[in-house]
Amino acid sequence: QLQLQESGPGLVKPSETLSLTCTVSGGSISSSSYYWGWIRQPPGKGLEWIGSIYYSGSTYYNPSLMSRVTISVDTPKNQFSLKLRSVTAADTAVYYCARPEGTGTISFDIWGQGTMVTVSS
Amino acid sequence: SYELTQSPSVSVSPGQTANITCSGDKLGHKYASWYQQKPGQSPVLVIYQDSKRPSGIPERFSGSNSGNTATLTISGTQALDEADYYCQAWDSSVVFGGGTKLTVL
After folding, report:
1. Which chain A residue has its CA at the smallest distance from B56's CA?
2. Which of A30, A51, A67, B53 has a 20 to 30 A CA-CA distance from A108?
3. Partner B contacted by A108 (CB < 8 A)
């Protein structure tokens, strides 16, 4: 059974870079043509897609975050990662990694448990 | 940028039918998905490609999409269906609606 697990610091200082990793277990990140995704949710607010990456490394980003976001993949480690630069308090959120239900689609049917990241000095 | 609009809240009595709507420009020309999220939990996909149910999702969940509106219908609503529901579509990027809080009372 495929599982995703987010990891990374729970506290990041303003203006610094938020770095998170999603570890995929129970399957290979490169075995199928999925666009693995990052989604976040500020406290008490809705979901916001950050971006998605194909195992080959091609990416799609939310236009509103594109200038600050980099998503990368490490197939030998079966992981993909998120870097968000120049963070502010507005980036405080639960960050989820997720996998779509099918190849080439964007409906996410497998989610990690989420990790809370607080931006504060 | 593309926007999806949902009513903030919907109330339904147990056993009745709940309709949660999501509106966006020409949304019917795109695929809509729906997620259920309970407090403190990760979202769960309940409908994708407008009307398909993932494995394990009860038959009481159904979806439709036409014109500018996608609708998630929950038939015979149960107390355990009380949650936030989000619609999602693709328009050059992944877009989520603002969410609808379903109250079963």
Report:
1. A109
2. A67
3. yes
Shortest CA gap B58–chain A (Å): 15
SS3 (DSSP) at B75: coil
Give Cβ neighbours of residue A19 (< 8 Å, ≥ 6 apart).
Answer: A8, A9, A81, A82, A83
Query: What's the token pair of residue A60?
Result: 């799609």
A87 in Cβ contact with A12 (< 8 Å): yes
3-state secondary structure of B29: helix
DSSP A41-90: E-TTS--EEEEEEETTS-EEE-TTTTTTEEEEEETTTTEEEEEE-S--GG
Say how far apart CA B94 and CA B43 lie, in whole Å.
Answer: 15
Residues of B in contact with A96 (CB under 8 A): 42-43
pLDDT digits (tens, 9 = 90+) for B67-103: 999 999 999 999 999 999 999 999 889 999 999 999 9
CA-closest candidate to residue A112, choices A5, A2, A1: A5
| DSSP code of residue A5 | E
Rounded distance, CA A11 to CA B11, Å?
Answer: 37
Please write the tens of the pLDDT for every residue from A91-109: 999 999 999 988 878 899 9
Residue B85 contacts A where some CB pair is shorter than 8 Å: no
